[in-house]
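As described in the Methods, two query proteins were run sequentially through the folding procedure within a single session, without resetting any intermediate state between them. The first query and its resulting structure tokens are shown here.
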Amino acid sequence: MAHRFAVLSFAFVLGVQAIAQQASSTLQPGKVQSDGLIHVDLQTRINYLSRAQLWHPVNLDDIDTRSGGQVSKSKTIPNDAIIECDYVNDAPLGGTTNKFKCTNPKITLADGTPVVTKLKTLKVRYNSIKTFSTVISTRLAWALGFGADTETPVTKVICHGCSKDPFKQKSAVQGDSTFTPASVEEHMSGTGIYGEGLHYKKDGGQADPAWYWSELKLITDKNQADQANALELLAVFLKHGDSKAIQNKLLCLEDLDAKGICNDPFIYVHDFGNTLGSDGMSVHPLGLKRWEGSKIWKDDKSCVASLHMNAFNGSGLSDPQITEGGRKFLAGLLDDLVHKHPQKLRDIFDAAHIEKYDDSGATYSADAWVKVFTARADQIINHAPCPN
């Protein structure tokens, strides 16, 4: 999605700011349209953003970071499963990383045991660093309590009707193609909320339930504001250098009520894609040495964090000001994971098979990544209180 979307016009940004100043507790009813999104007016969208949840507490003892699910429950798609499915082209997937959709999935374990699933359509990534990095970033966000999609590494995907490069094909072909390694993405459950008139020029006016990082300042609740600031610091920690609005989603977790109102708006980062490397003019994702050398603090004393949005991808998060509430909140989450549950952290990298990743001609173990992760986390955990 790196080059498909443009930023809002300057006039529209000013309009959103004016609407935010006038926003009241009144919500106008929305409706699910043919595109599958809840359409609302701009003031209602701003209102939802201002009170949206973005975090919930997680007991690390109750989750299995290796499988990506609860300790007592099996996940929809197990790690390292084998998938057979049929190629389908029902919508453009956009972006620059290799992916395709397929339907009628047949899922089995390595020993041939079938896996029962209600999923009808899968989104598959292949021949991409994201088959490694997205597994790590989504499981990390989930383990810390932030919203996240589910990305599952699979041993292989056998696609009936796929060419060798299905990302570029327009219709089914004769024969099968096998993709390994690969991963399968499942979106967070909920319905996207779209503000009427919020269009992206390069996408021909297509609606999207996106939000801008600058809009986190609309959040009025102190606890939620701290959580939002912690999410900004997490983006810095990961080096989320492609943080344009289209990577983020505003959801209604349950159905609209009888009056057409969403009672549980939720915001999350849908795509922490270009992470775990360096940021700036030219993003270099998933590089251990680059990530190790990337700064967390631009100004250590004033707690201005160091993150540079890729200059070619539009408006995103750059050098956010971190409050003590935000730093302390993320520090507590990281400390729990890194120092109290280190095996949970290691399991995330191990599940992603990071040791198989060609990192600029080298390979690094899960332990090597955990060591760098811990050192970076300690720069937040052990940091002096921020001045604001």
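Immediately afterward, the second query was submitted; its sequence and tokens are:
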Amino acid sequence: MSDAHGLTVQLAKFAAALRSHSIRVGLGDELDAGIALTLVDLLDRQEVHRALRIAFKVPHEAWATFDKLFEEYWGGTVAPQSPVPRPVPFQDHRGPVQWKWDGQRVRIAVAEVEVADAASPAYSAEPLLRQKPFEELSAAELAAMERLAARLALRLATRRSRRLIPARGRGMVDLRRSFRDALATQGELLALARRTRELDEPRLVLLYDTSGSMDVYTRVLLAFALALRRVIKRVEIFAFNTALTRITRLVAPAKISQTLERLAAGVPDWSGGTRIGSCLAQFVDGYLSAMVDHATTVVIVSDGLDLGDAQLLTRCMQALRSRAGRIIWLNPLMGDPRYQPTAAGMSAALPYVDHLAPAHNLESLEGLLRFVK
């Protein structure tokens, strides 16, 4: 048995002992106690004692009972006779209305679990769908893929940074701030201060190649862009082929099919040729200073098959590199293990790209989570 597992078992036994002596301890309190133990010196018994008493929210009148049980379970003075003491029912004085509400909540929770279990199939095709190339998807699979792309966009939008910030409600117990706050009440801990990881919403500029060579990938990739537009505030979307078109305000994230039809009709030379250099030049001249800074990730989605000026593409990539925090190039052709980035456009852009990654299936798109700031 590992040390961590043994500590968890001991904590569960201790919580059961508290309950058996009419000290009200819930599952959430046990989780808080487990987190608290990761924040203190486990070799310092006084620090562990204080952390557990705070995490379990032990009322003052029960401190003597808590101290006795702490010595039995953590001090080694008396070995507990039973690994899990038999619990004693709580005496709750909240009244029949509150009991009725608690019972209703329990019934709702159980019903939700039963519905979730009934809806869960014994076999899911999702893993296979995530690995299937976009060009091989059927019409039904395309619809399912759009839903998976929306879930991926939500994951990208709700990532947590490593930085911890004060939080209300749920979160990790902040013992230092809890103790500081208790100074104002003569040492009484009226509430536990908590902290959580800050929501790390990215700032994105997406440049999508809508030329003819990208046709088989366009629907799913743009569906992913539309989903990002729905859940991320700071995202700008551009379509390019022989000209650049800003489509951020033209998209309707809830209506993917209609949006794609409108874009196909409104974006010049949709499914035509590709002049990446001249399109990026339009972006650099018209939008670079306003939309891109060191906190921005620029994502270019293209197969790099360029019919334009490679030197112009190089200059534009240099300009992007000078301002962007990160440049990611997603190339669907990289799904073929034989692919080499030797096309003129790809070769010109590659020295200025932070990450060159595939974009031929949903699994490859999930790699974007690792690269975006």
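Residues 78-124 have pLDDT under 50 and may be disordered. We note this only descriptively and draw no conclusion about the first query from it.
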